[in-house]
Amino acid sequence: MPATTPDVRVRRVYDPPSPDDGIRVLVDRLWPRGLAKADARIDEWPKELTPSTELRRWFHGPDGAYEEFRRRYQAELAAPAAATALDRLRTLAAHHTLTLLTATKDPATSHTTVLREELTGARG
User: How far separated are the first and last CA of the chain, in Å rounded?
Assistant: First the structure.
């Protein structure tokens, strides 16, 4: 029987929670502005999986380029604490829908895309 691809979704944290979100995982280092914790319905917040402050600042600065950000972020995900947190989410994704939540305005060109690919084995 072929293995199924985990159902890992990406949504903006400001969108209202949906009944089919499954486990809701905040993947930003900072709590989203103006969002009450009770309204966010966050199940997990693995800060070890978020890009470092240095990487985030570099990416949003004048020299930040997405492909280089992707490469640097993948290197950060290989660090022991991040790898452990990533394994935990892989285990959850094997049995549940995961929804990765971010305040990023454009999730398609953010760390969430890289993280989703790491969790599903898909490469965009």
Answer: 25
